[in-house]
Amino acid sequence: MDTPPFHLRLPATLDSVSQLLDALEVYAEEAGIAPRIAARLALVAEEVAANVAMHAAGASFFELRVTPDHGQLGLSIEDDGPEYDPLARAAPDTAATLEERDVGGLGVHLVRELTRDARYQRDAGLNRLVCALPLGD
Fold it and tell me: What is the pLDDT of residues 89-105, one digit of tens each?
């Protein structure tokens, strides 16, 4: 079965993050996406959407697109908040103790670890994070 694309645009609120996760769960089930891949998809989407909802002052929406292509799911997450490249942040020192670590940054670290080819673009007043989620191991 061919995996269909997915697209959803919601207000940039924490309630919308829950709506997004519910919609992704239905999508993954209907598209026959393996549960472990669906869980990764939900984790990446939740992290990026929640960051927009909580930290992108003035953002009115976030939009997620999933485009299956050659054994992977292409992901594009856009928002209209202030310019911010989450990938520019240094990777956290995961070997440091909790007391030594800076607050935050683990979510973006997970996105980097779970996806391939993550990149940020600012275009026409929009932040766009693009990455790929492998369908295989």
Answer: 766 555 556 565 455 55
Kindly list the strands in the beta sheet with 61-69, ordered across the sheet, starting from the edge strand earlier in the chain. Answer: 6-11, 61-69, 72-79, 126-134, 116-123
CB within 8 A of 117, min separation 6: which ones?
Answer: 130, 131, 132
Rg (CA), the chain: 15
Confirm if 75 and 55 have CB atoms less than 8 A apart. Answer: no
What domains appear along the chain, each with residue ranges and CATH number?
Answer: 6-134 (3.30.565.10)
Question: pTM for the full model?
Answer: 0.84
Chain-centre distance for alpha carbon 32: 20
